[in-house]
Specification:
The structure is a single chain. With about 120 residues, this protein is α+β, with helices and mostly antiparallel strands. The chain has one domain: Glutaredoxin (3-Layer(aba) Sandwich). About 50% of the residues lie in helices and about 15% in strands. The protein has seven helices and four strands; from the N terminus they run βαβαααααββα. β3 and β4 form a beta hairpin. It is globular and about 45 Å long.
Length: about 120
């Protein structure tokens, strides 16, 4: 089962969910705020993607971090920061079971999900 991680009021997440629905692709939505995050799950995302991909450095959550914290960010610090502020995750996070992808691009998702369904 495909899982989309995000927050319900995020415009990009709304666009991604609409795209999935328009293409009749079944998915489960996991709201980072209301459904929470599991530490081991975030650790595995960081191992697979690295903090540079997983963390949205253009977000208001990132900009709200102390400058020293931003400059010293690494996977370990990102884990603590994400668990404290899940909105640091670049949204949406698409989990197709055997791999994860951050952000939404219709052409990229189409290629990825076409590959996934073969």
């Amino acid at each position: 089962m495909i899982t989309v991680y995000g927050i319900s009021n995020c415009d990009t997440v709304k666009k991604a969910r609409r795209w999935l629905e328009q293409h009749a692709i079944e998915y489960r939505f996991h709201d980072l705020r209301s459904d929470g995050l599991d530490k081991s799950q975030v650790q595995s995302w960081l191992q697979e993607l690295g903090w540079e991909t997983l963390v949205n450095r253009r977000s208001t959550s990132w900009k709200a971090l102390d400058a020293a914290e931003r400059e010293q960010m690494d996977d370990r610090r990102a884990l603590a920061a994400i668990l404290q502020q899940p909105t640091l995750i670049k949204r949406p996070l698409l989990d197709i079971g055997h791999e994860r992808h951050c952000g939404f691009s219709a052409p990229a998702w189409e290629a990825l999900l076409l590959r996934h369904t073969l």
